Amino acid sequence: MLKKIEYCFITTLWLTLSPCISVSFPAQKDFKSKSTIHKSPIMGTNQNQNQRVFISYAREDTEAANRLYNDLKMAGLEPWLDTQSLLAGQDWKISIKEAIRNSRYFIPLLSTNSVEKIGYVQKELKEALEVADEFPPSKIFVIPVRINDCKVIDEKVRRWNMVDLYLDWKQGIERILTSMGLEGKKLESSSNQEGLSYRYDEWDELLRYIYEKRCCPFIGPEASIRWIPTNNDIAIKLAEEHGYPFDDAKQLPQVAQYLAILQNEMYPKKYLANILRDIPAPDFSLPEYKNTIYAVLADLSLPIYVTTNYDHLMEEALRNKGKDPETEFCRWNSAVIKYAKSAQISFVSDNRRYMPTPANPLVFHLYGDMDYPISMVLTEQDYVDFMLNMSNLDINSVVLPSVISRSFAISSHLFMGYSLNDMNSRNVFRTIANFSGAVEPPLSIAVMPAPISALVSDTNVSQVQKYLEKYTKGMFKLNIYWYDLFMFLVELRNGFNTFRKKMSTSS
Questions:
Q1: How far apart are CA 118 and CA 96, in angstroms?
Q2: β-strand pairing of 105-110 with 52-56
Q3: Do residues 81 and 92 lie in contact, with contact meaning Cβ atoms separated by under 8 Å?
Q4: Which of 2, 131, 140, 463 has the most CB atoms around it within 10 Å of its CB?
């Protein structure tokens, strides 16, 4: 009887709280691809189109490209960078060609890596030169930028005045903005001397917990969108293929629930697991992935990593960095527990003496593992059952190993790849907050981009942020860092390296 009451309460909470809260949260941008019809950039009247900037670069210069991307974004422009703008499943050759054609400016990053490189860098430049021919002489389209003291041989590029970012990055960015007619634009550059460590009182505290191996990172769905289709994209694909009749076709739990009822419970889970298994994992030891969430977290050498994703990108990054990770999934209901026993799956955490280490870390899949589809929390029913069972851990300690529940209670938490717009993210925050009841965690942080919405004016952004900070602090015991995730990761890597050197010299 009690379980039935709890079920009804949580179901009601799910249906009523989500729309109420989402009204208060800024709407996310729609990232649907633009029309494929070519229109000359100088003829467009769309203000957004006039702010688009295509960044062309060699893979070896990824860090500089990302830095430029963030600086232009902070200046109010709409930069286009393949690693940030291409969606999983898109034909990248066609998308890049369209992006160049639909941009107002084209910035080739020139370096010793790119000027003599044969390949797609030259194809992008050729495409840009064709677009440049459509512009009158008085209009600027190509803005060549040098990021080191390289010799530019191409006469077609040398005819344009170049910007040397390597001499003075901030001054170079200001020159670029001036060329775009943005003289005097206030620049909050990512290269600003005042780093993240000076902006947050908790920064040194977080670095100390990482150094002491008492930080537990949580990896959410937005961490893997560079390689894996979003839940919205998967939901739409499933809905189209199976004639989903409702108007919430972007909501994966709802679509999966529909298929679980019409087909069988395992159908949507196996479908999604097959998609994930077919996606090759990148080599996170390569320079181009240096500041991705997985590479940075692997380099922090922590003993426990928690992910709510079904994929194995975290494990792959750890292996690429010379670690030997263990993988476990949450046994969140009786069916998963029975399956694990009958399949004789070995869980290292069942050994009460087991302790994960930085060399042999534990990657714990809170919402299940793609290799075991039955373990995946996917449908609406799954999420309700998961929440119920997480509130009854005293009845069955197998659901969550003691090494994990202890980490939830006493470690510092670092959430990345989550969004307040997502009900599932809020469920994760609430689940972890429940473990903090009697024991206040040292520090709990979620990194999110500042809220931007057509419904929120510039003057109200600060007010919205303050409200959301109070909301998450009260509801989830969580501090929000309003910061671009990529720039946070760059600052985290640099800050931790500095902190570690300081600690080693002082000891």
A1: 17
A2: parallel
A3: no
A4: 131
From the list 154, 153, 129, the residue with the least C-alpha distance to 141 is 129
Q: Can you list the alpha helix ranges (DSSP code H) found in 199-251?
A: 203-211, 231-242
CA pair distance 96, 124, nearest whole angstrom: 8
Average pLDDT over residues 279-295: 91
The answer to whether the predicted template modeling score (pTM) of the entire model surpasses 0.85 is no
pLDDT at 4 over 50: no
Q: Distance (Å, rounded) from C-alpha 382 to C-alpha 273? A: 16
Integer angstrom CA distances of residue 20 from 16, 227, 289: 7, 32, 38
**Tens digits of per-residue pLDDT, 20-29?**
333 333 333 3
- C-beta separation of 49 from 77 below 8 A: no
Q: How would you class 377 by CB atoms within 10 Å of its CB: exposed for 0-12, middle for 13-18, buried for 19 or more?
A: buried
In percent, the amount of the chain with pLDDT more than 70 equals 80
Q: Which of 77-86, 137-146, 461-470 has the lowest mean pLDDT?
A: 461-470
- Coil vs helix vs strand at 243: coil
Residue 461 has a pLDDT of 67
Say yes or no: do domains 41-179 and 199-228+279-506 share a fold. yes
Burial class (CB in 10 A: 0-12, 13-18, 19+), 132: middle
The CATH class given to the 41-179 domain equals alpha beta
Rounded average pLDDT over 461-484: 84
pLDDT tens digits, one per residue of 39-91: 444 434 444 456 889 999 887 788 788 888 888 887 888 899 887 787 767 78
> What fold, for 199-228+279-506?
Rossmann fold (3.40.50)
Residue 42: the pLDDT is: 40
Task: Please answer whether residues 256 and 268 qualify as being in contact, where contact means their C-beta atoms are separated by less than 8 angstroms.
Answer: yes
Q: Is the dihedral of CA 82, 87, 91, 94 positive or negative?
A: negative
Element containing residue 217 per DSSP (H, E): strand 215-219
Domain extents for the chain?
41-179, 199-228+279-506
In whole angstroms, give the CA distance from residue 361 to residue 258.
37
Give every strand in the sheet of 163-164, ordered side by side: 78-80, 52-56, 105-110, 145-146, 163-164
Q: Which two tokens stand for residue 36?
A: 């494929």
* Residue 376 CB-density burial (10 A; 0-12 exposed, 13-18 middle, 19+ buried): buried
* Cβ–Cβ under 8 Å, residues 496 and 301: no
